[in-house]
Every structure is written in C-alpha cells, then in structure tokens.
Design a protein that fits this description.
By secondary structure, this protein is an alpha+beta fold. The protein contains six helices and six strands; from the N terminus they run αααβββαβαββα. β5 and β6 form a beta hairpin. The two termini are 29 Å apart.
C-alpha cells in the first residue's frame, strides 16, 4: 500500500457511503484522517496491501491483517474492494485467500478472524468460500456484526489442491 493511494481510498468512501457501513466506519473521514490511518497501517501489528485488478493493475481496494497478536498467533482480516465496478467479480475472494495464506504461511498465525456486517451477503459468501465459519456476533455502535474465523489447519487442507 502506498501513501499516494490514500486519496483514491478516501474518494471511494466519500462517493459510496455504503462502503462506510460495510467497513464499520459510520462517518466519511477527512483526507487527513485517511492519511493518519495509512500511517497506522505500517505499525508492527498490521500488514496492509493494495488490491489491484489482474487485467490492468488498476487499484480496486486494500486488505490485510490487523491486531496481529504474535503470542496468541492470531490476527484480524480486513478487506475492502472500494471500486464498486469490481464488486461481485471474485476479487474479494481471491484477495482474501492470498492474505490468509500470507498470514498462515509468512506470519505463522494459527487463526484469523474478521467482523462483517450481517447484511453484507457478498462478503459473507466470499469469506465462506475461503473457509471462514461463523463464530458469534458482536455489537458495534448499535449494529450487530458476524464474527467469523478460520484455523490454519482447516485453511491449508481446504486449499491444498
């Protein structure tokens, strides 16, 4: 992920308010706040990446692992396909698979979890394809989110083909 990508990420959030709900952020940030988020993304407990369209390398989103806990061998997945022209085309599933494989391989995590809006059917379907299962529900700012998780062994068996 590059500092120069932040105005694009910010633009998606301003132009497409539904993204704010999907990423559990209920107010469009200023560009300054977006840049501060980017600065935080380089801290040791985070690994964030830009997501590019395979065909033309167009920037379409970002994703990665946050709240990485080396002692517990866990981390939280975050992905956003910010350009709506690329929704429903498999990019989220592919990016999620690659990020989870990185977490289990390079970072030696044992489990990866995420929170997703209950009404984000596309994302839930994508996460399920990758191997995530519902673990419970959590409330955030008055809304319920599904907590989903995947264990290293389950993921490796599922993606061994």
């Amino acid at each position: 992920m590059l500092a120069g990508d932040q105005p694009i990420f910010h633009g998606w959030r301003v132009k497409h308010p539904e993204i704010l709900h999907l990423v559990r952020d209920f107010s469009a940030p200023s560009l300054e706040a977006q840049n501060a988020w980017f600065e935080r993304s380089s801290e040791p407990d985070r690994r964030m990446f830009s997501i590019l369209a395979r065909e033309n390398l167009e920037l379409i989103g970002h994703g990665g692992l946050v709240d990485i806990d080396e002692k517990r061998k866990s981390g939280q997945l975050r992905t956003t396909i910010g350009n709506p022209a690329f929704w429903g085309k498999g990019y989220g599933t592919e990016a999620t698979t690659l990020i989870v494989a990185y977490g289990f391989g390079d970072l030696a995590l044992g489990n990866i979890w995420l929170l997703v809006a209950e009404d984000n059917v596309r994302a839930i379907r994508s996460y399920t394809k990758v191997g995530f299962r519902e673990e419970g529900r959590e409330e955030f700012q008055g809304e319920e989110f599904l907590r989903m998780g995947v264990m290293r062994e389950e993921f490796l068996v599922r993606h061994a083909e």
